[in-house]
Design goal:
This protein is of the alpha/beta class. It has a 3-stranded mixed beta sheet with strand order 1-2-3, covered by helices on one side. It has a 3-stranded mixed beta sheet with strand order 4-5-6, with helices on one face.
Amino acid sequence: MTEMSHTERFKTISRVNWVCTIIDAVLTVFKLSIGFLAKSPALIADALHSLSDLGTDVLALVLGNLAKHGPDEDHPYGHARYETMGTAVLGTVLMMVALGIGVENLMALLNGESTSPHWLALVAVAVSIVSKEALFHYTMKYARLTRSNLLEANAWHSRSDSLSSVVVFVGIICSLAGLHFVEYLAALGVAALIGKMGYQLAWEAMQDLIDRGVSTEQQQAYMDTLNSVEDIIDVHMLRSRLLGTDVLIDGHIQVAPTLTVSEAHQINDFATRLLKQNHAEITDITLHIDFEPDHRIEKTKLKPMRKTIEHLLSDFDLPDYERLYLHYSDNLLNIEIVFAANEDVSGVNQKLEELIQNTDWINSIEVHQKIG
C-alpha cells in the first residue's frame, strides 16, 4: 500500500471523523426517542453513552483539524501534538465513561433495582450494536492506514458503545425472563474492559507527549540503514522522539577525517535521503558529522583555527598558495598546501620542516603542486 501524503492523510482522518459524527448523532436521537417511548432506563443510558461518543467525535474533528497545520513561527515542528493530546483526552473520556457505567450498575445491583422493558427497545439496541460495530471496523481500518492514534482512540470509543449495547440487549432479554441482575453483572464487566482500553490509550499518548522514542527494534532498523552507507565509519548517539505519528531523529555519524566539507555534507545528505526512503514515518533528521569517535578517552581538543595557521605560514615567506587544507585528528594537526603549477616551491619543504619542529601540535605538512 502506497504511503499517504500529509494532505491525503488529514483529509482521510477528517472524512472518517465526519462519518463517526453523523452516525453517532443519528443513533443518539434514535435511541433516546425509542428509550422514552419504550420506557427503558437501560436504553436511555445507552443513548447517553452514544451522546458521549458524539462529544468525542466533535473533539476529534477539532483536534484533527488543528493537527493538520504545518510548521509556523511559533510551532517550528508543526502541530501534530494536537493529535496526541486528543488521543490522551479520548482515553481519559473512556475511563470516565467506564467509571460512570460501573458505579451506576453497581448501585442498581446493590439496590436490587429491576426494569420492565418493552420489546421495541430490543430493536433499537440491535440497530445500535450493528451500527457501532461496523463503525468500529471502519474507523480502525483507516486508523491503521493513516497511522492515526486519534482515529484508533475514537474507534475504541465506538467499540465501547457497541459492547455496552450488547450488555443492554442481554439485560433486556434477561429482564423479560425475570433475571434482572444479569444485566448489571455484565455491565460491570464491560465497564472494566472499557476502562482498560481508555487507560492504555491515555497512557500511550502521555508517553508520546513527553518525547518517548521509538522501540528498540525500530531504532536498530534506523542504525542498520545508516551503517549501510559505505562512507560512514560509525553511527552513535542516535536518538528519536515521536511527534504524533511522525518520528524525529538526531544522531552522530563518523566519517574519515581527511574528507572535505562538501564530501562530508554529501554523505550526510545521502544518509538522510536513504533514511526517509526506507522509513516513511521519519519526517525530520539532524545528523552531526564526526571525524573521530565520541567515545574516545582523550578526544581531540580545540586547536588553532585557519587564521592562526595562515599567520604562522606568513612568517616563513612562502610563495602564494592556492589552497590550504587542515585536518585535525589525535590532538594534532595535519596540513596540506597546494601551490600553482608555475610557482617556485624550492626550499619550501625546508622552511615548513622548521615550523613542524617549533610547533608541538603540528604533526605533518604535505606540499602539493598542480600539474600543467
